[in-house]
Design a protein that fits this description.
Strand order of the largest sheet: 7-6-10-9
Strand content: 5-15%
Helix content: 25-40%
Number of helices: 11
Largest sheet: 4 strands, mixed
Distance between the termini: 45 Å
Bound molecules: glutamic acid
Structural class: alpha/beta
Number of strands: 10
Radius of gyration: 21 Å
């Protein structure tokens, strides 16, 4: 007889095989500020409550904007905050091969196409009142979707810069389960509830950019799976993107983490950062004499 589902799994989304795994995943393209501190602290608190491990990952696929000095500064700032991570940090720039292999599988399934458009061409074709994606960018109007394969090959061979896009309609035909796609959301009471998600709202997302052989969506999904992440804890600004992540997990047959999208640190005028803290880097607050305990307390944490 089949074993009943593990009760822990139903309650916390923890992997049946082992301890929950969480991650804090900043992009080292600037100094960490209070918003990052908040996200790291929420991760640490949940890891503690679940008895899980907390990993650190540097999302440095944008080689023009990410710099080693920002990474070094982040390590210092996180230590100052009192946070400890399990194992050494993972650097996405060291795993381009894994992302390429996953993109290659989508191409082999006939779900990708090269796109030669510039941002300006896309904006012009989409028009000022055209449909937008959940981030407010013009929805890709499909200009390159039907370029004949021979022509695309010729243009690539001639060195024309191109991105690789997901053919969203084809991907949905292939991977959308009968009842539609959902994510498992972790509630504050630590139970999971299914929430429907809509990848189609993003249109033909970019999988590999002109200047980098992957994209946020691809590398985050591949890494969460390769690192065995069971609980993705990140800001509300990334909640809509989870629809794309769930679709990619379906297409690649990857496990489905539980998601918790925390509030953003807002100031009185609705900005992302508490005004008292400004958008000041943590290291600047520190230089001004703010103690780590003080910052933690202002974000609602008594302990790291
Ligand atoms: N690297 C992203 C950021 O710094 C976070 C990605 C994620 O947590 O999924 O906003």
């Amino acid at each position: 007889m089949q074993q009943p589902a593990n009760a822990d799994e139903a309650v916390t989304g923890a992997s049946v095989q082992g301890r929950p795994v969480l991650r804090f995943a900043p992009s080292p393209n600037g100094y960490l500020h209070a918003g990052h501190a908040y996200s790291a602290l929420v991760n640490a608190r949940l890891a503690r409550r679940l008895g899980g491990r907390l990993l650190l990952r540097f999302e440095d696929i944008d080689l023009t904007r990410c710099r080693p000095e920002f990474e070094a500064a982040a390590l210092e700032d996180l230590e100052w905050l009192g946070l400890r991570f399990d194992g050494p940090p993972r650097r996405q720039s060291e795993h381009f091969d894994a992302y390429a292999a996953h993109i290659g599988r989508l191409t082999a399934m006939g779900l990708t196409y090269p796109c030669f458009c510039s941002r300006r061409q896309i904006a012009a074709a989409a028009g000022p009142d055209g449909p937008r994606d959940p981030d407010g960018a013009p929805l890709y109007p499909g200009l390159c979707r039907h370029i004949p394969a021979g022509e695309a090959r010729r243009r690539i061979a001639a060195g024309e810069p191109h991105a690789l896009r997901l053919d969203m309609a084809a991907a949905l035909r292939r991977a959308l389960p009968p009842g539609g796609l959902a994510m498992r959301r972790l509630t504050p009471a630590l139970v999971t509830e299914p929430v429907p998600v809509d990848p189609a709202a993003w249109g033909d997302v970019v999988l590999a950019r002109k200047e980098t052989p992957t994209s946020y969506h691809v590398s985050v999904v591949v890494d969460d799976a390769l690192q065995g992440v069971t609980h993705v804890v990140r800001g509300q600004d990334l909640e809509a993107a989870t629809a794309v992540h769930r679709l990619l997990q379906q297409l690649w047959g990857l496990p489905e983490p539980v998601y918790f999208h925390h509030r953003l640190v807002r100031d009185e005028t609705g900005g992302k950062l508490a005004k008292s803290l400004g958008s000041k880097p943590l290291r600047q607050l520190r230089a001004e004499g703010v103690a780590a305990a003080e910052l933690r307390a202002s974000l609602g944490f008594a302990e790291p």
